[in-house]
Amino acid sequence: MSDRKRPANNGSAASGNASSAPGVSPDNNDGGYNAGMAVFSYIIGGIIVWSLIGWGLDNLWGTRWIVLAGALLGALGGFYLSHMHGLTSSRNTSGKRGVDSGPSADGNTNAK
Fold first, then answer.
1. DSSP-H helix ranges across the chain
2. Which stretches of the chain score pLDDT less than 50?
3. Which residues, in sequence order, are CB contacts of 66 under 8 Å at separation 6+?
4. Do residues 79 and 43 make contact, with C-beta atoms less than 8 angstroms apart?
5. How many Å apart are CA 95 and CA 80, to the nearest integer?
6. Per-residue burial over 49-88, b = 16 or more CB atoms within 10 Å of its CB, e = otherwise
7. Are 81 and 42 in contact (CB under 8 A)?
8. What is the pLDDT of residue 87?
9. Residue 81 contacts by C-beta under 8 Å, 6 or more apart in sequence?
10. Chain centroid to CA 57: how far?
């Protein structure tokens, strides 16, 4: 039984957008939740990986502070990656104008 919500993949690796970030569909409709989970996983993954590297270096060199530096470096790196993939930008995909985006289209601001 096929899932109607997902498009069929014909087994071709070229059918997806290779430059698309995790959580963002090729038509740039991220849905918010998927992009948030991708940002969360980048940051948590960076903290875990770089903390483990720091822990290993701490054991190797007999120090105790490199694991904290690794955790900070991992958090910053995860945020940097999510920012570079465009997951942290706040963009309005609905096409509607926001309240604070300027005067109304007809120029009447109802100011007295």
1. 33-61, 66-84
2. 12-16, 97-98
3. 54, 55, 57, 58
4. yes
5. 27
6. bbbeebeeebeeeeeeebbeebbebbbebbbebbeebebe
7. yes
8. 86
9. 42, 46
10. 29
